[in-house]
Amino acid sequence: DGLPVEDPGNTFVRSLTFRSTDIVRMNEIYQSITALKRDQIKRETEKAQLADIVEQDRLMPTVGQRPARLPDVFMRPVAEGKRFPSALEIHGNGLRYMAAGRGAGSTVDILFNNIRHLFFQPCDNELLVLIHVHLRNPIMLGKKKIQDIQFYREASDASFDETGNRRRRIRYGDEDEIEAEQEERRRRRQLNKEFKEFAGKIAEASNHEVEVDTPFREVAFNGVPARSNVLLQPTVDCLVHLSDTPFFIITVADVEIVHLERVQFGLKNFDMVFVFKEFKRAPVHVNTVPMTQLDNVKEWLDSVNLPYTEGP
Known about the structure:
The chain is of the alpha+beta class. It has 4 helices and 16 strands. It has helices spanning 23-49, 166-170, 175-205, 294-303, and strands spanning 68-76, 86-90, 94-98, 107-111, 115-121, 128-141, 144-154, 212-213, 221-223, 230-234, 238-241, 248-251, 255-261, 269-276, 284-290, 308-311. A hairpin with a 6-residue loop joins β5 and β6 (128-141). The chain is extended and about 95 Å long.
């Protein structure tokens, strides 16, 4: 029905069935048609994925002087190849990270006008000290589309030799351990200072288009935004989890209303649903928040002027 027919007497073929005595050749044809369909679907999904990739401006490298650098940081997600530390640099209109090691030569440029949020998370009670960038428009890293990039350094020494220590034989008791603890505290303070100052330099270089946001651990609460139970920390503009992948970032300004589900007497947990102002965007669920933290959550929602409802 509804075919563009000039001659009403035309007949159209709907399907054809082929039979062959040469089974091998027939199988080859079948395989090649299947492969063709698969490749076409793959191409179309890739095209759909790249639909919201926006062409970025060119990075303007700093000329005549050495750019401000944060040396020996790792990046997440990882570009191709192995993980090697490299330097993050501040240039005229953005940041540049040159991947070292096997993926050497792959450069990641992040422009200030594409940064929506910039977070600094200190390594107090954490294993990593990090600077996290949340982008307005996703960029391509290798073949992956990403919207969150993180630069970090590990706060504690992974390996520590406790055997071949000459002083160990002379001194008894806990002096060594106390000294090691003090050394680690000093190292963490130093890392926090270095990363915080660098985040401040990024804000200055962008003429404060980008502001540094730090999570408030005191008002944090637990929840399950993806697969595992994690600590969700409010910042001035967002609710975030940055310590592990997948990262979780919700911008308060995008949220229309929050609904607290399963708030009932006798239950140990409740769920939060964030409904966005842009209704095409699917609501985000944070499940299994302990009931003991209900008052904290409500207090935070009040403080950022988010209306909330609750019910079974």
